[in-house]
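Ticket #4471: structure output looks truncated?

Reporter: J.K.
Steps to reproduce: submitted the chain below (136 residues) through the standard prediction queue, then opened the result file.
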Amino acid sequence: MDITIHTASLPYDDPDASLAFYRDVLGFEVRGDAGQGRTRWITVGPAGQPGTSILLTPPGADPGVTEGERRMITEMMAKGTYGWILLATPDVNAAFEKVQAGDTEVVQEPTEQPYGIRDCAFRDPAGNLVRIQELR
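Returned output as attached by the reporter:
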């Protein structure tokens, strides 16, 4: 079977702040921006990798989500326990310096993990955990 990851989804609470983080801090390309105001579906992705994207979405945008579930999603986002993504780079120290310069909440500085991975972690403006690991 030949399968690839095309798009992962992360929620936002402020579309402009999330767009600025992924575009200006991480350097991702904006591939789409549909909707208006605070209800937008924004697609971003790493330059040179047109087959891989992140879809930034309003929390609980699925019509099957109840109002109570939307509140729970919003509460979990505020605590940073709802969404996360794992990115990779050949130089985690350089990536850390660039992201940290973007006035981003640092969760973990570059660290050699006991399981053999060197990585760091931040929160995006919506509270989603963004881990960046070093490719070896």
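Triage note (M.O.): checked the attachment and the full token line is present. The radius of gyration is 15 Å.
Status: closed, working as intended.
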